[in-house]
C-alpha cells in the first residue's frame, strides 16, 4: 500500500483524537457494574499509576498489572495473575462484592 502525505495527516489526526479520548476516558475507579477490557486502562487519580493488561517482552501471555504511568520504560509494580496468564486479548477485569471481599476476577 502506498501512503500519501494526506494519509499521514489523517493518521496524525487520528492518533491525536485517540490520545484525547484516552485522557478523557481515564477512570480511576471500577464499579461492580463496569468491566475493564484488554486495551483499556485505569489511571490513579494523581496520575502516578496505570492499571491494565500487558505482555512481558518476548511473550504473548496477557497479564493484568499496575505500572508507573510517568516513567517511559514500563515498570510493572504489581501483577494480579502471575500464575495464571491469559493467552489472548479477550480478557476482562471485573470487581464484585458479593461476599465480605472485593473480588477481582480476570477472565
Ligand atoms: C481466548 O482464550 C480463552 C481461554 O483460553 C478462550 O476461551 C477464548 O475462546 C479465546 N478467545 C479467542 C478470541 O481466541
Ligand atoms: C455491593 O455494592 C452494592 C452497590 O454499591 C451495594 O448496594 C451493596 O450493598 C454491596 N454489597 C455488599 C455485600 O457490600
Ligand atoms: C470472593 O473471594 C472470597 C475469598 O476467596 C470467596 O470466599 C468468595 O466466594 C468470592 N466471591 C465470589 C462472588 O466469587
Automatic annotation (TrEMBL):
Gene3D superfamilies xref list: Bulb-type lectin domain (2.90.10.10)
Name listed for the protein in its UniProt record: G-type lectin S-receptor-like serine/threonine-protein kinase
Signal peptide: 1-26
Keyword Glycoprotein carried by entry: yes
Domain Bulb-type lectin: 27-107
SUPFAM superfamilies: alpha-D-mannose-specific plant lectins (SSF51110)
Biological source species: Abeliophyllum distichum
Keyword terms of this UniProt record: Glycoprotein, Signal
SMART domains documented for this protein: B_lectin
Source organism phylogeny: Eukaryota, Viridiplantae, Streptophyta, Embryophyta, Tracheophyta
Domain of life: Eukaryota
